[in-house]
Specification:
- The chain is of the alpha/beta class.
- It folds into two domains: 271 residues, Aldehyde Dehydrogenase, Chain A, domain 1 (3-Layer(aba) Sandwich), CATH 3.40.605; 192 residues, Aldehyde Dehydrogenase, Chain A, domain 2, CATH 3.40.309.
- 39% of the residues lie in helices and 23% in strands.
- The protein contains 14 helices and 24 strands.
- A seven-stranded mixed β-sheet has the order 15-18-19-14-13-21-22, sandwiched between helices.
- The chain is globular.
- The relative contact order is 0.14.
- The structure holds ligand TXE.
């Protein structure tokens, strides 16, 4: 039984109350690890250790921070295989995909290690013999709370900039996939991160998570998770004037125009729909196809699905692994039932799968549904699983209207060979990310974040460095 521990003041420890939560391997449905069911006592100990570490950490040179964060990146790369295996077992994603996510996690630390050295402020002379300059300083103790879908990638994407800007961190991974955060704490210790600079608290969101976000000493919260949780955290944070960076859900449209490269559009849209079992906030879940090619696209899309092998995530040719938890598995299946009740036609899948030897695991077939109205629940609410809807549109205006019709605005992809169409759609679609003739290309140097109910766009690159700092403007008359 894997025993996951908290990481407080450089030590691994159980919850003070000795309580723990059981966590299951999604491929087998069996409990395989435990994690601390932390409460106030654990959070207080973490906050105290962060406070003790803050003065030294916030005052060491940027180069010293670079060296430690860069060493963490090197160790993540060195341990790619064991981190990837742990992630695949814990979250259910295919092992080959987990390797790519570990590589990106190392890049997160490498990018923000260098950002620590490059991060600068501005100054300028003003008429009337004034000079104006601004100072950027760390906020203090910040919270990084992450989701289970890309556990290591998302938590490193938060922790690295928070540390690079000189803050001390209280991080809380999801209780559904805590394994690689535990391994990250060991890596940070090996890299020489001073005790108390990073503390990782495990536990339930509504308990440990709530205690962290409510704590008066936590001055900023970087959160990734459901819209509903983002609302709860915002309600708690607002009266205490805590800074908030929110990466929330999505219901991402894929726009397929008749003049697209059909073969490429089909292959990439299958990937966008079912990579990581569709458990990506950037997944394309609403596929909008120009009427002229709807039947051709549908036929090619369904044919391509036959190559999406589903099963044991540890096998190299597996494209679709297990669903992270029984709770989420049931939620996805309930949406498929809702779709049927709303008149949806199941073109492919629509039911659980029981791979040989893994009959107790949580697997759901890639599912394609057509004939749903735009205002149907499955076209408006985030399902966050291997379920997509197919809808046709007549004109570009129709496509944009459908694409922009949900309360989310995170990501979109557009397939067209017409550059004018591409620019018009990119300009008028209301999503924080737009991919044209591609999907899931990400660059750490670029800002990232959703519009509308998908978040507040404070992530990525210099946005998140600014988020984790306080700015002061100084005017000097001479
Ligand atoms: O979210 P939850 P999940 C979104 C994705 C989906 C969600 C899935 O779209 O909606 O994440 O992640 C903690 N106070 N994104 O199911 O349940 C909880 O313990 C404090 C968007 O994990 O909200 C966990 O650590 N904390 C993203 C974390 O919050 C609380 C990319 C998330 O849990 C809490 C990836 C509370 N009251 C996924 N309740 C993007 N937009 O980029 C829960 N938690």
């Amino acid at each position: 039984m894997l025993k996951i521990l908290n990481f407080i003041n450089g030590n691994h420890c159980e919850a003070v109350n000795k309580n723990f939560i059981e966590n299951s391997n999604p491929s087998t449905g069996l409990v395989y690890s435990t994690l601390p069911d932390s409460d106030e006592q654990d959070v207080e100990r973490a906050i105290e250790s962060a406070q003790n570490a803050y003065n030294s950490w916030s005052n060491i040179s940027a180069e010293s921070r670079f060296k430690i964060l860069n060493r963490i990146a090197e160790l993540i790369d060195e341990k790619n295989e064991e981190l990837a295996l742990a992630e695949s077992i814990d979250q259910g994603m295919p092992l080959w995909f987990a390797r790519t996510q570990v590589t990106l996690s190392a890049q997160n630390f490498r990018f923000f290690a260098t950002a620590a050295m490059q991060y600068s402020s501005t100054n300028h002379s003003m008429e009337g013999n004034y000079v104006n300059y601004n100072q950027k300083s760390p906020i203090g103790i910040v919270a990084c709370i992450s989701s289970w879908n890309l556990p290591l990638y998302i938590i490193t994407w938060k922790i690295a900039p928070a540390l690079a800007t000189g803050n001390c961190v209280i991080a809380k991974p999801s209780e559904f996939a805590p394994a690689t955060a535990f391994m990250l704490s060991e890596i940070c210790y090996q890299a020489g991160l001073p005790n108390g600079v990073l503390n990782i608290i495990n536990g339930r969101g509504e308990k440990a998570g709530n205690i962290i976000v409510s704590h008066p000493k936590i001055k900023a919260i970087s959160f990734t998770g459901k819209l509903s949780t983002g609302k709860v955290i915002s309600t708690l944070a607002a009266p205490l004037f805590k800074k908030l960076s929110l990466e929330l859900g999505g219901k991402n449209p894929v726009l397929i125009f008749a003049d697209c490269n059909l073969e490429k559009a089909v292959k990439e849209t299958v990937r966008a729909s079912f990579l990581n079992q569709g458990e990506l906030c950037r997944s394309g879940s609403r596929i909008l196809v120009e009427e002229k090619i709807y039947n051709n696209f549908k036929k090619a899309f369904l044919t391509e699905l036959k190559y999406q092998s589903l099963g044991n995530p540890l096998l190299n040719d597996t494209k679709i692994g297990a669903i992270v938890s029984k709770q989420h598995y049931d939620k996805i299946l309930s949406y498929i039932e809702i779709a049927k009740a709303e008149g949806g036609k199941i073109l492919f899948g629509g039911e659980p799968v029981f791979p040989k030897g893994l009959e107790n695991g949580w697997f759901i077939s890639p599912t394609v549904i057509e004939n749903l109205k735009n205002e149907s629940i499955c076209n408006r609410e985030e399902i966050f699983g291997p379920v997509v809807t197919l809808t046709s549109f007549k004109t570009e205006v129709d496509a944009l209207e459908i694409a922009n019709s949900t309360d989310y605005g995170l990501a979109s992809s557009v397939w067209t060979e017409n550059i004018q169409t591409a620019h018009r759609i990119a300009t008028n679609i209301k999503t924080g990310l737009v991919w044209i003739n591609c999907w899931m290309y990400v660059d750490t140097k670029s800002p990232f974040g959703g519009m509308k109910n998908s978040g507040n766009g404070n992530s990525g690159a210099w946005n998140i460095m600014d988020f984790f700092t306080e700015q002061k403007n100084v005017y000097i008359k001479y």
